[in-house]
Design brief:
single chain, 106 residues, GMP Synthetase, Chain A, domain 3, 21% strand
Length: 106
């Protein structure tokens, strides 16, 4: 689903508010009712907010296109969210590793 959604956003949406977007992860709930789509966004905070707003506006179009391509009986509701910046993700992983080891920050 990640690849198909990424292609739809990159090549088939014509909304000028949608900037440079990469779908990094799609997490689907166990009951298949919700799909949390994590996005790598470029630009300022305002541009990123505009991109997410444009994707929310296009949500029904995206769901319909995905439903046709993936031949799903029930298409989950899409929820868009910005993924952590690579620097923050690396820092979070480092902090979690320390917590697992039981060490305090040095």
């Amino acid at each position: 689903m990640r690849e198909e959604l990424g292609e739809l956003i990159s090549y088939e949406l014509s909304d000028p508010r949608v900037g440079d977007v990469a779908v990094t992860e799609v997490l689907i709930s166990p009951d298949f009712r919700h799909a949390h789509v994590r996005l790598s966004l470029s630009g300022s905070a305002e541009e990123q907010a505009a991109t997410i707003e444009a994707l929310l506006h296009a949500k029904q179009f995206l769901r319909h296109q995905l439903s046709d391509r993936l031949e799903l009986h029930h298409m989950p509701d899409l929820h868009f969210e910005a993924a952590l910046a690579p620097e923050l993700a690396a820092k979070a992983a480092q902090v979690l590793k320390r917590i697992r080891r039981g060490r305090a920050k040095s």
